[in-house]
């Protein structure tokens, strides 16, 4: 997969792929792979589930399909074929790692979200249709198992499932991050007397909650 070849189209309105108008934009394969690496790291390190990067996933899938076609045209003895296969494996690893990180958090946190109607609505907006179906199935199976094996044998006063019984994202967890673009007047601590100026390229350690919106917007990169 040559990262210096022709451009690849990516669609959507998220992070640096978007031009701000929900329009189709063009990025190079090298830029797409860099964004995939950043998305994988941020999703893996983030305490909560981030909005799905459907634009980037589609772009990478298209890029991988193009590479498979190119590889099929090369002879097995050609050195370029070996390089393309290695790059294809690396890209597949990053993509599956990104999707796996999301599924692990969906499986862990879905009960807490489904027990809160307000949280359920916002939860659904973060997921693809397939992810939401998976989350719903996880919740239904968990609920069915708990009700049949435990709650049915308990007094009525304690036989109702509550959100506090299940794990929720720890938004107070400390995270390291790199600033992707200047962010003025960021309040990193609610007890702080003044806001902090986050300069592009700088590194910081702070609680996740105050910077969650900036992470979701792609302005900060978790590391």
Automatic annotation (TrEMBL):
Annotated localization: Nucleus
A Pfam family annotated for this UniProt entry: Sld5
Domain DNA replication complex GINS protein SLD5 C-terminal: 169-223
Family annotation (InterPro entries): GINS_A (IPR021151), GINS_bundle-like_dom_sf (IPR036224), GINS_Sld5 (IPR008591), SLD5_C (IPR031633), Sld5_GINS_A (IPR038749)
Domain of life from the UniProt record: Eukaryota
Biological processes per GO annotation: DNA-templated DNA replication; double-strand break repair via break-induced replication
Keywords: DNA replication, Nucleus
Coiled coil spans: none
Entry GO CC: GINS complex
GINS subunit domain residues: 85-142
Main localization of the protein described in the UniProt heading: nucleus
Family: Belongs to the GINS4/SLD5 family.
Role according to the record: The GINS complex plays an essential role in the initiation of DNA replication.
Name this polypeptide is given: DNA replication complex GINS protein SLD5
């Amino acid at each position: 997969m040559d990262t210096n070849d022709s451009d690849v189209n990516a669609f959507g309105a998220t992070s640096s792929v978007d031009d701000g108008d929900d329009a189709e934009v063009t990025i190079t394969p090298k830029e797409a792979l860099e964004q995939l690496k950043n998305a994988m790291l941020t999703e893996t390190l983030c305490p909560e589930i981030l909005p799905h990067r459907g634009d980037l996933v589609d772009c990478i899938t298209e890029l991988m399909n193009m590479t498979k076609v190119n590889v099929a045209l090369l002879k097995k003895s050609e050195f370029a074929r070996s390089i393309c296969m290695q790059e294809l494996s690396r890209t597949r690893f990053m993509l599956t790692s990104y999707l796996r990180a999301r599924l692990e958090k969906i499986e862990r946190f879905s009960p807490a979200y489904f027990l809160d109607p307000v949280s359920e609505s916002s939860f659904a907006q973060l997921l693809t249709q397939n992810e939401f179906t998976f989350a719903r199935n996880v919740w239904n199976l968990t609920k069915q198992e708990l009700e049949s094996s435990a709650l049915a044998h308990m007094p009525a006063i304690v036989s109702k499932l509550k959100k506090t019984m299940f794990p929720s994202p720890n938004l107070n967890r400390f995270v390291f991050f790199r600033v992707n673009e200047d962010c003025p007047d960021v309040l990193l601590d609610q007890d702080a007397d003044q806001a902090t100026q986050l300069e592009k390229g700088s590194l910081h350690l702070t609680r996740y909650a105050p910077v969650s919106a900036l992470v979701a917007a792609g302005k900060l990169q978790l590391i």
